Amino acid sequence: MAIESITQIPGIFAAHATNAGAGTGCTVIVCPAGATGAVDVRGGAPATRETDLLRPEETVGVLHAVVLSGGSAYGLAASCGVAEELERRGIGLDVGVGVVPIVSGACVFDLAVGDSHVRPTAQDGAAATAAALDAPEEPLAHGNVGAGTGCSVGKLAGPERAMKSGFGEDVEQSGPLVCGAAAAVNACGDVFDPETGERIAGVLPSSDPAAPASCVDALVSAAASMPLERTNTTISCVVTNARLTKAQATKVAQISADAYAHAIRPTHTTNDGDSIFVMATGEVDMPVDVVGALATKALERAIACGTREAKDAYGLKGAAGE
């Protein structure tokens, strides 16, 4: 059976909390039984939670949830709500006197879109967690939802020429191996279809023939005009049914970062906080390089999906139109 959403991967639950009026939201991916977790952080300005414990040498070997959120560093509060909701349901690491859910997360900067004073809260995180666990296999929506609600791309030639982007996902299968990816695309660069090379969204055309035609052009000509530094990030989560150690899951996260380079130009800049989480449920034995290659393909397509399905909003044009 073809799997169309990460919510259809056995043992994985996911849902959004969306505040369209304020231009922000969060997306929660839960593995109640616990997954082997890892992370790769390559951007120069990350806003993250519980990434150190995912390092291979650390002793915590299980990850219960990943939270992708808007709200910049304020959005980390959503992860607290996720942990509290999981605790209420008895999901977490048994510490003898109760359970402690292991929840990692990352945030995008969306404060320049919508209402900058409204950010995802603990209540939003709890609501998304409850929706995920109470509606199993409900496919995730794409575009202007969840962590992608306030996302935009193509900002290196100035905010007036930027475009709307959003949340996307993709699932790839090869025999018994399943790799899914979810991404909130808030890059300072342009986004391309990695298979056709077509630009999906980015710097809008200018009436000035001397103006940079792409974010790379803007950067190399020293014409980049970001109004604020450290305001961009593409954050994502790869979910797989592969059986991986923490070190192997870390390598999959590192390999998957190729997807950013294939789909976003430029990427991993000092103005980005790019982060990739991995959750491995441990059902299928497969070489790490095979898992990494399939995960990269899924993440490339998730980035393209989140950009292609974004609609016009907050004064920004989206590839999907109105």
What does this structure look like?
There is one protein chain. The chain is α+β, with helices and mostly antiparallel strands and 322 residues long. It has a single domain (12-317), classed as L-amino peptidase D-ALA esterase/amidase (4-Layer Sandwich), CATH 3.60.70.12. It has helices spanning 77-88, 122-134, 215-220, 246-256, 258-263, 288-308, and strands at 13-19, 24-41, 48-49, 63-69, 93-94, 99-100, 103-107, 152-153, 163-164, 167-174, 177-186, 190-192, 199-201, 233-242, 264-265, 275-284, 317-318. Strands 1, 2, 3, 4, 7, 10, 11, 14 and 16 form a nine-stranded mixed beta sheet that branches. It has a three-stranded mixed beta sheet with strand order 8-9-17, with no helix packed on it. The protein has a three-stranded antiparallel beta sheet with strand order 13-12-15. A hairpin with a 6-residue loop joins strand 12 (190-192) and strand 13. Helix 1 (77-88) packs across helix 2 (122-134) and helix 4 packs across helix 6. The model has no long low-confidence stretch (mean pLDDT 93).
For the structure shown, list the relevant keywords:
322 residues, 17 strands, L-amino peptidase D-ALA esterase/amidase, single chain, alpha+beta, 9-stranded mixed sheet
Q: Under CATH, the topology is which? A: L-amino peptidase D-ALA esterase/amidase
CATH top level label: Alpha Beta
Major sheet? 9 strands, mixed
Number of helices: 6
- Structural category is alpha+beta
Got a strand count?
Answer: 17
Distance between the termini: 34 Å
Secondary-structure element order, as H and E?
A: EEEEHEEEHEEEEEEHEHHEEHE
CATH architecture: 4-Layer Sandwich
| Gyration radius, rounded | 18 Å
Strand content: 25-35%
